[in-house]
């Protein structure tokens, strides 16, 4: 199936009444959680995941994806009006968005971010349409050793490219891999790491793990904030939103540069929209002839990050749909949702489920058009949501989490699992251990083990197959480079510290 045929198939799927309805529900929820600080798209998707069990897999994925990219739109609203990023990825928008609001240009800033978000998403969607099928076609030539190597590269890259300590991220990947081993061995049928609990025979529920690590942990982290964000915002008029001719010239090039940066960064494992928006902002400030304007209300300071932010969200679907490798935690949950519906993401997805693949991509266009309608005329409504007291909001969310995880398998044990992982996720935050690598390792672990054992079986136990296969050798080499970037700087510093000591001993 070529791109034009896929385009036609996708439109036929995305424009059905039920797909449009679930797309609208998804982007509306996404905008809602994006506006409210402290919830985030990941917690919202984890909460909505059990509800999708009763939906068609395509409709379910359209809705969950709508929550994902809808939250990026909503996050900029609170950043501009109240200097509070609704999502972590919108934090950069605060730097110039809030000063613009203080200057009475809040309507202009909101309009610019909405347009930039749409442009960035549109450019990335075109790349997904072009690159995902090409990568998937190439990946059909992969053997078991190649799949193992590319998954290993994804996990290593997600650890070494993350913000914070790479060593902590690597340790969390290993922890996630261990969690993925809990349950029944596929080959032997033996229980592993169940500790006598029959409830763990099928392993940990991905819904419980995701809800605990991100949803419950988020609630515990914000439990000390009893009040909502109450602040009066002036009336927002449509005519105040339109940029003047000079302002259009200010935002066009930053928008295109931000879209390019976000599209590239989003397709890399372990990066995500936060890093993309930061890189776009730093690039604009560096190339600007008047960098001192940044932080004081520069339109470029909101144009580039918002375009990069939304472009990276859409391009993150390239490795997941074409290779079956999630780039960040949210995409990992989306991939888990597909697996729960009996669909395996990867090279065969385009051929085996063309309706789902192309329908999802076309729904991106539909969803982004809906978001323009939601985010420009309804700004006042979204702002009023900020006055909801947290002591009413978070208990309600916690109840829905428990009900959702129970309804997945009608298993009370899963409620204790989600609460346990919630406490664990909170402690990980307190001590600086990232939770995203845990979820990536947990989801990719069984696939990694399966392909490793298959490769070893076909090669009769010869581990050199991972380096003799050309494709596998390239990915293994890249993994070693990423690992070297973590360990070599520390080793070099130790050698430099030891060298003066040895020289002093020789002098004595």
Short description:
The protein is mostly helical and 508 residues long. The protein has 22 helices and 2 strands. It comes from Pseudooceanicola marinus.
Describe this structure in words.
- InterPro entries: DUF112_TM (IPR002823).
- This is Tripartite tricarboxylate transporter TctA family protein.
- The chain crosses the membrane at residues 19-49, 61-82, 108-135, 147-163, 169-188, 200-220, 323-344, 356-380, 392-419, 468-488.
- The protein is mostly helical.
- It has 22 helices and 2 strands.
- It has a two-stranded antiparallel ribbon.
- Helix 4 packs antiparallel against helix 12 (300-315).
- The N and C termini lie far apart (77 Å).
